[in-house]
Structures are given as structure tokens and as C-alpha cells.
Design goal:
By secondary structure, this protein is α/β, with parallel strands linked by helices. Helices cover 37% and strands 22% of the residues. The chain folds into two domains: 13-182, DHBP synthase (Alpha-Beta Complex); 187-277 and 314-374, Rossmann fold (3-Layer(aba) Sandwich), CATH 3.40.50.10990. The strands form two sheets. It has a seven-stranded mixed sheet with strand order 5-4-3-6-2-1-7, with helices on both faces. The longest helix has 16 residues, at 13-28.
């Protein structure tokens, strides 16, 4: 299916983004969020990694029934529980799950579950509260697992927004969560621009693009002379704190960043988009978790899936919107990843040519690069 921006009444967009952004902040604080999906379904939600025994009791008391755990189908496969085409799986236990059991099921770095839990696993509705809750944890850059208590039996929650206000909970509509990335990409705005001479490209300016919810900015690094009429040499680079800033040897990100700047400058000009998508879209904390799993024997792609993520969680809609605002429709893309070419094409960017972008390995990242080539389809 092609990626496309979903139309929404202009007056609705700010409300939609603000609701999701606030809900993300609440989950990161360990608080409850109220979610409403289609057909009148309603639930209260908490991030699994922030759950405490007291928090579990609170949710049970509010809903009048034991909460369930929603995880990704990736994590369910890892646990040997279920394999489904749906993206989210709901886990139930006869007498309910304890906070410790929730942690063990959600976090691969926790201890292994050593006793049978008599779990019932079932696929979640694609656009239900459970799927929305897991999507919200991903947006919060937390482990992709949520504890959910259905409010169907709670008559007081029939007017969910009013009920949420009385209990000091934030309320968010599931539809706003599902289309959040599309809405945020469409609303990217240029907020700052400056000339920034670089060591390998003195004729450089940087343009900052901010999403309308005030979230992390994406940067367009314009090097040399830019001719939007022809295919523009371009690189999409996902931020990497450890590689770009600290010079980590576990990846080749720092080499790719500085190498792209040199190559674009040598070619006379082009664009490097520096995207706020750390760790292939899972965030810095989860990337460090993935590193620990790699130290336990998993490769880079398997480590992501152990955590419950897809091998690559990046979204290319912001990059497409940045190219559009810069007047660039056709590019020569510096990448070893054919999926980037296909993804940009689905977003309306024409890739006239894939330009190879490789660097020597070292003893710390050799296995990482081999995994990207052998399992990730990268062309090295």
C-alpha cells in the first residue's frame, strides 16, 4: 500500500496533535491515559514498563476487572505465544497478571518467566484500544507494550472525556493516535535557518523543520549549490547519538554522516536530511537495550524484534515533506538500503539513481554490517 497523507479538517489537526503529545508525556510519567476507539469502546491505558503493583490495583479498581497486556505480534512470536497477521496481541491470565509478570512479558532484559502463566493470547482489533495503546507507547519511545483495562462495564465512563477529567486523566481518541505521524509530517514548518560552515563543506546552511506539536526538529543540511530542477544528490541520515556525536564503533553511522557531507560537497552540492529517528525509529533508550541484547548474542535485527519492534520502525513521510518544501522532487539517493528507495517512492519522491555509500568495517561493527547485508537486504 502506498504511503499517503490523510486529509483532516484543518481545525481538527492542532487538537489531534496536542491530545496525542500530552498522552505521550503522561505515559512517560507512568500515568494513566483514557483511550476511546470506534463503536464506543473505551479503556484506560498505562505503559507496561512503568507499571507498579499499586498502579495495577488502581486500574483494576477503576475498571472493575483485571487489566490485560497488549504487546506487538513481534514480541508474541519471540515469547512463543502466537503468530498472527495482526500487529498487536492481547494477553490475559485467569486470575490476572501481576506487575512483575507484566514486566517479564514486556521486557526481554527482565528475568525469564519461570512458571506457567496459563496465558490466553488473541489478536487485537486493528483499530481498537489495544492497538492504539501500543502505538502510543511507540510514539513515547518506550517498550511497545501497554497494560489496558476495558471500561465497557463501567457505566460511569460512558461520557469518557468527562469521566477522565473527574479522575484527572488525559483523554485521547484512538484515531488521532493512528494518524499522528501523517498529521505531524504534513504540518512540518521551517522555523530557523543559518549558514553553518562545516569542516568538509564550508558552503553549508542548515534549515530546521519543526512538527506542529512542538516535537523534535528534523534538519535539512544544504551543501553547496542546489539545483532543484535536476536530480539532487541527497542522503537521508537518521540521528545516532552514539555514532554521530561520540564516535561509537558499534555502527557505521558517524562514517556515513561525515562521508556524505564530503561526497556532496565534492559533487558541487546537495542535501543531507538529518532525521530525528534514533535507533531506526525506536529511540535512544531502546537502542541501548538492543545493544545489551546484542551483547547477549542477538544480532541487530533480532534484538529489535526481541524488544517487540519491527526490524526498522522509521517513517519517511517527514523526509518527503521536507523535500517538497525545498522544491526537490527528484533525487540521487546515497544509500545501501533499497527499502529507502522504495519508501520514498511511496511518499511521492522520485529516486532517479541509488548512489552506493559504503565504508570499511572494524572489529566492533563487522557483524552488524554483515547482518544488515545478509538479513536486512543492504547492498554493501
Amino acid at each position: 500500500m502506498p504511503h499517503r497523507l490523510i486529509p483532516m479538517p484543518a481545525s481538527r489537526e492542532p487538537v489531534s496533535l496536542l491530545a496525542v503529545d500530552r498522552a505521550v508525556s503522561e505515559l512517560r510519567r507512568g500515568r494513566i491515559v483514557a483511550v476511546r476507539a470506534s463503536a464506543g469502546k473505551a479503556a484506560i491505558v498505562r505503559a507496561a514498563e512503568a507499571l507498579t503493583p499499586a498502579g495495577l490495583v488502581e486500574m483494576s479498581d477503576l475498571a472493575g476487572a483485571p487489566p490485560v497486556l497488549a504487546i506487538t505480534s513481534r514480541r508474541a512470536v519471540v515469547l512463543g505465544l502466537m503468530n498472527t497477521v495482526e500487529k498487536v496481541v492481547v494477553l490475559r491470565a485467569g486470575e490476572g497478571l501481576s506487575a512483575e509478570e507484566v514486566r517479564d512479558l514486556a521486557d526481554p532484559l527482565s528475568r525469564l518467566v519461570t512458571r506457567p502463566l496459563n496465558l490466553i493470547a488473541e489478536a487485537a482489533a486493528t483499530y481498537g484500544c489495544e492497538s492504539a495503546a501500543v502505538g502510543l507507547t511507540k510514539l513515547a519511545r518506550l517498550l511497545p507494550a501497554a497494560v489496558i483495562a476495558d471500561l465497557e462495564e463501567n457505566q460511569e465512563a460512558e461520557d469518557l472525556p468527562a469521566w477522565a477529567i473527574r479522575h484527572d486523566f488525559l483523554f485521547v481518541d484512538a484515531g488521532d493516535i493512528f494518524q499522528y505521524e501523517h498529521t505531524a509530517a504534513r504540518g512540518l514548518a521551517r522555523v530557523s535557518e543559518a549558514v553553518v560552515p562545516l569542516e568538509d563543506a564550508e558552503s553549508t546552511r542548515i534549515i530546521a523543520f519543526r512538527p506542529p506539536d512542538g516535537g523534535l526538529e528534523h534538519l535539512a543540511i544544504i551543501i553547496g549549490d542546489l539545483d532543484p530542477a535536476g536530480p539532487v544528490l541527497a542522503r537521508l541520515h537518521s540521528e545516532c547519538f552514539t555514532g554521530d556525536l561520540l564516535g561509537s564503533l558499534r555502527c557505521d553511522c558517524g562514517d556515513q554522516l561525515r562521508g556524505a557531507i564530503r561526497e556532496i560537497a565534492a559533487g558541487g552540492g546537495g542535501i543531507l536530511l538529518y532525521l530525528a529517528q534514533e535507533g531506526r525509529g525506536i529511540g535512544l533508550v531502546n537502542k541501548l537495550r538492543a545493544y545489551e541484547l546484542q551483547d547477549r548474542g542477538f544480532d541487530t535485527l533480532d534484538a529489535n524484534e526481541q524488544l517487540g519492534f519491527d526490524a526498522d520502525e522509521r517513517v519517511y513521510l517527514p523526509a518527503a515533506e521536507m523535500f517538497r518544501q525545498l522544491g526537490v522532487g527528484t533525487i540521487r539517493l546515497m544509500t545501501n538500503n533499497p527499502e529507502k528507495v522504495e519508501a520514498l517512492g511511496r511518499c511521492g519522491v522520485t529516486v532517479a539513481e541509488r548512489v552506493a555509500h559504503t565504508f570499511p568495517s572494524n572489529k566492533h561493527n563487522e557483524a552488524y554490517l554483515q547482518t544488515k547485508a545478509g538479513k536486512g537486504g543492504h547492498l554493501l
